[in-house]
Amino acid sequence: xxxxxxxxxxxxxxxxxxxxxxxxxxxxxxxxxxxxxxxxxxxxxxxxxxxxxxxxxxxxxxxxxxxxxxxxxxxxxxxxxxxxxxxxxxxxxxxxxxxxxxxxxxxxxxxxxxxxxxxxxxxxxxxxxxxxxxxxxxxxxxxxxxxxxxxxxxxxxxxxxxxxxxxxxxxxxxxxxxxxxxxxxxxxx
Length: 189
What we know:
By secondary structure, the chain is mainly α. The chain is built from four helices and no strands. Helix 1 (8-23) runs antiparallel to helix 2 (25-70). The longest helix is centred in the N-terminal third of the chain and has 46 residues, at 25-70.
């Protein structure tokens, strides 16, 4: 039941009618007067709280207007600064996560005697160099493979051709020049 819906007169009447037989008329009147006083005090407190809330809202509005007057767009700037701070915090968290992953998965490249940022940047440089070396080796291996396949094609090594073992054959005889149907059979042991 809402406090405002309480009928204090009905409550007091109930006290006067029902409690006189147990505690006497004087005590029942005191109890009814006390209930009435509590009701009035609470009603005053509620009214004061509502009034204070209105004053607080008015003051808050005045502060916002004052902030905007002193620094135009203060709230927008403050909100933007908070967003940027949160974004930077995420970047820092992502950096830390990346650095932990590098330290964990690429520990062979990490020099633990260095400070953490130096260790990570040094590991990144080492990985970059290793990658370039591996890339050059892969390019060289591809060129060598292509050259070997071309040599096999030119010099008629039919035993390594995928088409040589077909039922109908490839049409080119052993040790003859392949007419373009040569395909390496792949790696077989």
